[in-house]
Amino acid sequence: MTTFESLGLAQPLLAALEDEGYLNPTPIQLQAIPPALEGHDLLGIAQTGTGKTAAFALPILHYLIGNPAQRRKMAPRVLVLAPTRELATQIADSFRAYARFIKLNVMTVFGGVPIPRQEKQLATGVDVLVATPGRLLDLVDRRSLLLDQVEVLVLDEADQMLDLGFIHSLKRIAQILPRQRQSLFFSATMPTAIAELAGRYLTDPVKVAVTPVATTAERVAQHVTFVNQAEKQALLTMTLRQPEFAKCLVFTRTKHGADRVVRHLIGAGVRSAAIHGNKSQPQRERALEQFKKGEIGVLVATDIAARGIDIDAVSHVINFELPNVPEQYVHRIGRTARAGLDGVALSFCAPDEKPFLKDIEKLTRMKIDPLSLPENFLKEAARLPKPLPVTDERDRSDHARRGEVGTHKHAPRRFGDRDGNRQPGAREEGRHQGRRPDGRAQEARSDGEAAHAHPHAGRPRSDRPHGDRPHGDRPHGDRPRGHRGGRGRGGGGRVGGGRGPRANAQG
Ligand code: AMP
To answer: Quick one: pLDDT band at residue 214, thresholds 50, 70, 90?
Structure first.
């Protein structure tokens, strides 16, 4: 069996891996580390949970150990691009863990936090910088960060970058970076747009791939319950009151949906917290910490917030709403089958979500096992306690803003930063139009609290479950397939040609 030692990694790294308790390389590490050590560019198709962070971090650290250089102000030698602050933080933590026996400065920069502090830190010198694209460009434009010394570049979760509208930022970053560098590019899927982006970043890459998206699903016991949208909350509360749901991740489609679910759960005595893009960084970190420590048993998340977060041993994943992109389903349920553990995933499917279920079953090539509603469901549901009232200040301000749609066309707009983080009190970029800065639809923003007793009656249009809305009013991904513009499933599109021969930084 191949060991980390036989891969030829430097001693301080082997010692750190031993401390981490890693016995053997994972498949992606086995495939990626040798060519990366040789200085090749890499195109990796791998999801979170496969060990891909170590697959790029270890060869990079090995290179830095073998090629020491004076730490430079504002000019990192290694740049890692990640789509979200959570993932950036996690990657930086992994670098620090593997570099614990090396003198190295690893720093993160992402939006949503004051820029001067990051500028000050950069000015003291940095070896490895982990950044989200928007904040990175802000810092470059302010001349607080130089990219001309970057020797190794990692672009992680490229498909997520694209989903978040970072494509233009990434194209610009590709132009700023020195041409002579090593680039390691990772994505869970490889639709044409990603292949095209990879072509811009990579020269003659070695391709490595593990666990095609469909096979992850095979390790998870999956069930679906057919239930009306209005009855999902009762079903969730009843489900989560069972003791075996000890560490459960619940996915909702919208941020407000996540908050609403948590209010109901807390009202019913289920310890839970929401994690999504409207929560402040400390709020997110606190919720994650509480969940990791077992102080709360349920974390309610949107896809974007949950993506890339490393939480071990999640016992159950519940899809409160089915995702309209089938790959997202596989990402979600993959959270419960990590490091060889088996997991359980439950999906609540409303009548209008059946087409999504069909797409998912097609992708995973599996029929999801139907699970009937509990006995006496309606009777039990009627006895459940009321949700907590809306107390969160952010929720209140959102309620207040709801009346503004289309009425303050010329009101001054205070945007968040380029990474899509809102400044305190700022409206989300493009909120008035219900569109995101990248031109795609904003997630539904209304809370729809009043509509709870009577499903959808009196709900603002944007909060109705998908099937209720005319197409023009739906977020893009909600539309029937023929109406969707962008991402196909794409498997293994040809990667665009490189830019001709070029010396590798390590070569
Ligand atoms: P990643 O895909 O990078 O998010 O890694 C998923 C999880 O696997 C993280 O908790 C890592 O600490 C862990 N991990 C990575 N490589 C190994 C390994 N070789 N052996 C055991 N665990 C690992």
So the answer is: low
Atom 5 in ligand 1: residue holding the nearest Cα:
51
Same domain, 164 and 245: no
Cα 54 to ligand 1 centre (Å): 7
CATH of the domain at 80: 3.40.50.300
Q: What is the mean pLDDT of residues 321-350?
A: 82
> CA dihedral in degrees (74, 119, 63, 10; nearest 10)?
140
* Whole-number average pLDDT of the chain: 77
**Does the CB atom of residue 26 touch ligand 1 within 6 A?**
yes
What strands lie across the sheet with 220-226, from one edge to the other?
272-275, 298-301, 248-251, 316-319, 343-349, 220-226, 369-370
pLDDT higher than 50, residue 479? no
What is the pTM for the complete model shown? Answer: 0.55
Q: Is residue 204 domain-shared with residue 300, that is, in the same domain? A: no
Expressed as residue numbers, the domain containing 35 is 5-213
Q: Is 50 in the pocket of ligand 1 (CB under 6 A)?
A: yes
| Residue 86 CB–ligand 1 contact under 6 Å | no
> Higher-confidence residue: 245 or 475?
245
Testing ligand 1's pocket by substitution, the residue of 53, 90, 336 carrying the most ligand atoms inside 8 A of its CB is 53
What is the per-residue pLDDT across 402-429, written as a single tens digit (0 to 9) for each? 332 222 333 333 344 666 554 433 332 2
Which atom number of ligand 1 is nearest to the Cα of residue 90? 4
Count of structural domains, the chain = 2
Phi/psi zone of residue 385: left (φ > 0), alpha (ψ -120 to 50 degrees), beta? beta
> Could you tell me the distance, in angstroms and rounded to a whole number, from the CA of residue 49 to the centre of ligand 1?
6
Q: Is 310 in the pocket of ligand 1 (CB under 6 A)?
A: yes
Show the CA angle centred on residue 332, arms to residues 415 and 444, nearest 5°.
35
